[in-house]
Amino acid sequence: MKKALRIQKGWGQQMVFVGPCLLFFVTIVIIPFILGFYYSSTDWNGLDLDKAVWTGSDNWRRIFLSDDKFWESLNFTLRFTAISVIIANVLALLLAFVLMTALKTKKLLRTIFFMPNVIGGILLGYIWQFIFTKGFGTIGDLTGISFFNLPWLGTPNTGFWGLVIVFVWQTAGYMMVIYIAALAGIPKDLIEAAHIDGARPHQLFRSVYVPLIMPAITICLFLTTSNAFKMFDLNLSLTKGGPGTSTQSLAFNIYSEALINNRYGLGTAKALLFFVAVSIITITQVWITKRKEVSA
Asked: In the chain, pLDDT over 90 holds for what percent of residues?
């Protein structure tokens, strides 16, 4: 009897602390997610519930058979994610190695490289829009370097690389901090032993550093992959998916379908596919990199 009362008391205390958060999570996340399955099979403008007409699999057939813009956005997002993730992580790892050395200004440099991550994506996008359109143009006129006079947001190719540059600039500093923490945790005696055995820098990196910082690589790849795949704010503030829809990310395509074209049912169906795609890609990435982790 006393044991049952203790269990009941413990359960009551847990609900006092966890209950409000659980209530908000269920209300804001779980219930809308479940309702999404229903609305994905309706023709609804997102405003009047009475006008949500059940259409069965029409939205899904439209996506898979005739929605070319959706697949173009998916192709753009996959290319953007692959390139951005590689560049951001390579740059972050290089910065981490440099700032692990005995530089007098390393603390200041760490702060400077981390600062872009603090700025919100929309604000960051408008700042870089000014840099691309005004700043680069002025530098190009003064120096005569054609690189700065490119129409950075005016063509599909330069618009793509403009988004990559801003995303990497925003993301690399945060990943750098994670890599620095991982490098700081490597036992020094392992490094010294490798040097004594005659390991060259590339051998030391491949055989000692990479295996021991693999947990950090797993985290950084997961964060950059999911963030790149869900990239929306930079897309909205920099190119708005243009020229045309050539730089439209998948998240921006869903936003346009649901909130601009007022086809909320079709947009919800695309969002569910988006969720499945992100889940499969990130789970696969974590599973592959987790298998390569070792303990020091």
From this structure: 29
Distance (Å, rounded) from C-alpha 273 to C-alpha 255? 14
Cα angle, residue 55 at apex, residues 52 and 61 outer, rounded to 5°: 130
pLDDT score recorded for residue 295: 55
- State the pLDDT confidence band at 8, using cuts at 50, 70 and 90: low
pLDDT in tens, 259-287: 888 888 889 999 999 999 888 988 998 88
Give pLDDT, residue 72: 93
Q: Is 18 helix (H, G, I), strand (E, B) or coil?
A: helix
By C-alpha distance, which of 268, 258, 213, 256 is closest to 72?
256
Question: Please, what CATH class does the domain formed by 68-290 belong to?
Answer: mainly alpha
Which two three-digit tokens encode residue 187?
């036992």
- The alpha carbon of residue 25 and the mean position of all alpha carbons in its chain are separated, in whole angstroms, by 22
Domain boundaries, the chain: 2-39, 68-290
pLDDT at residue 199 is higher than 80: no
Helix (H) or strand (E) holding 53: strand 53-54
**What token pair was written down for 220?**
């950084």
| Rounded percentage of the chain residues whose pLDDT exceeds 70 | 95
How far, in Å, CA of 130 to CA of 155, rounded?
16
Residue 43: enclosing H or E segment and its boundaries? Answer: strand 42-43
Using DSSP, state whether 79 is helix, strand or coil.
Answer: helix
Question: What Å distances lie between residue 218 and 92, 160, 178, 190, 294, CA to CA?
Answer: 14, 26, 11, 22, 12
Tell me the backbone φ, ψ of residue 53, rounded to 5 degrees.
Answer: -90, 125
**Cα 249 → chain centroid:** 12
Strand partners, 42: 54
Q: For the chain, report the end-to-end CA distance as a whole number of angstroms.
A: 48
C-alpha 283/C-alpha 245 separation (Å) is 29
